[in-house]
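Weekly puzzle thread! Below is a chain. First person to post its structure in token form gets bragging rights.
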Amino acid sequence: MFGLEPDALRATAAVTGLAPETALGGTVVAVAGGDVYLRTAGPAGGVLLLDSRLVPGWPLTSPARGMPAPPAKALPPPTEPPQPLF
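Winning reply:
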């Protein structure tokens, strides 16, 4: 996640906002500060980045089947490896 591991976790998309009549489901695979990384199911799959500052006021429940996901934008792949910390 912080570029320290050779196979660092990378999000493929980021949630841009939560909206009524949408549902976000997945398994939390990492948390760093306010960022929550969710492994999502379905045809898109991958790891989704959720800024936890978007969550206050939204219920945490099991979503009804067939609800659309909230809007998300694709994240570009890294163009170069992160710089070493030390």
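Puzzle host: Confirmed. Bonus trivia for everyone else. Strands lie at 13-15, 27-32, 35-39, 47-51, 72-74.
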